[in-house]
Amino acid sequence: MAALGTALLTVGAFVDVLDLTAAALASLTVVFAVIELRGPYPYMIYAVTALLSILLLPVKTPGLVYALFAGYYPVVKAVFERHFPRPVAWLFKILLFNAALALAVFLVVRFFMAPGTVERWHYWLLLIGTPVFILYDLALTRLITAYLLRWRRRLHLFCDDE
Question: What is the pLDDT of residues 103-118, one digit of tens each?
Fold first, then answer.
């Protein structure tokens, strides 16, 4: 699963317009591990994929997006949705996303940009990011639901009822 996630992030590194998409697709490997493997496996898949992508990819953007948010989010999503009422879970997920995005903007501005080159659009990301995150979360929920209700049985993967 880590190799598949790293391969998806590699595609995002070579095709600039797919960097965020590749990070979202690579996070599906962690989703699969959360659903089917449980235990330490989602964490290990996230850690190995993040480390390999940051070390090996020529363009670091997909690896950084994966490492700073998309990779561990499926685990956090499962925990928040399992242990909190829906409005509280949404609040925690949005707060976590905004903290991760603020950290990413800070790291990029601080370490990857020349002094004095900060533009206003870097800070607009913080406002635009939340609606995009909500769409990502809703899409992820629909994919998980489709997998559990349709694809899992058709693929004959880890089904207990056969």
Answer: 877 777 777 665 666 6
| Token representation of residue 66 | 């994966």
Backbone angles phi, psi at 81, to 5 degrees: -75, -25
Of 60, 44, 74, the C-alpha closest to 136 is 74
pLDDT at 61: 83
Alpha-carbon span 43 to 38, nearest angstrom: 9
Nearest Cα residue to 6 out of 75, 71, 68, 102? 71
Spell 118-140 as b/e; 16+ CB within 10 A means b. Answer: eeeeeeeeeeebeeebeebbeeb
Q: Is the pLDDT of residue 23 over 60?
A: yes
pTM score: 0.82
Q: For the residues 62-84, what does the mean pLDDT come to?
A: 92
Cβ proximity of 65 and 45 under 8 Å:
no
Cα 34 to chain centroid distance, Å, stands at 13
Cβ neighbours of residue 11 closer than 8 Å, sequence gap 6 or more: 18, 22
Residue 82 DSSP code: H
